Amino acid sequence: MSRIGKQPILIPEGVDVTINDFSVLVKGPKGSLDINIHKDMNLNLKDNVLVVSRSSDNRFHRSLHGTTRMILMNCVTGVSDGFYKELEIRGVGYQATMQGKRLILVLGYSHEIHFDPPDGIVIETNNRTEIKVSGINKQLVGEVSAKIRSFKKPEPFKGKGIRYKGEHVRSKQGKTVGGGED
Q1: Residues 24, 38 contacting (CB under 8 angstroms)
Q2: Within a domain: 175
Q3: Burial, 84: exposed, middle or buried (Cβ in 10 Å; 0-12, 13-18, 19+)?
Q4: Is 25 a member of any domain?
Q5: Which domain, by its residues, includes 59?
Q6: Taking CA atoms, which of 14, 24, 60, 139 is between 20 and 30 Å from 170?
Q7: Tens digit of each residue's pLDDT (9 = 90 or more) over 20-35
Q8: Are 54 and 61 in contact (CB under 8 A)?
Q9: Residue 88: CB atoms within 10 Å
Q10: Across 146-168, average pLDDT
Q11: Within-domain flag for 170
């Protein structure tokens, strides 16, 4: 039995879970998410506890068991608390500003980078060097954060670029002037 898959999901107050044939609708104070699940996964909702079980013990069903449980757990957490990722910008002159919902990045290129977030994602800039990406869908928050980071990944020599808050970037030693033999 999957160690993660067999754990029950506790549904907090204010979150409503509706199970249809092969889809689950999770509604909460922050929004709602609709997730399609595999037809061989069995869901049992009783007394605000959701349990995921599998129909057989073959390799494919074992691999789906824990994944299905974690996806549903992330939906419940997302509609009740939400998810966020924080990024920080390092480099002289590098900055981020908001113009309505659009994120404008100045990253040392000859042009500004304009990024419009997808629906369900909120981007905030506290000061010009910190970006906070938040939303109810954990996967979408991660994708948007990775997309913003990809505009200027942190380089290993000076550490300039966009990185996740708390991310450690190994720095390399630059070229040294050698005293060659004459």
Answers
A1: no
A2: no
A3: middle
A4: yes
A5: 9-80
A6: 139
A7: 988 999 999 999 999 9
A8: yes
A9: 16
A10: 91
A11: no
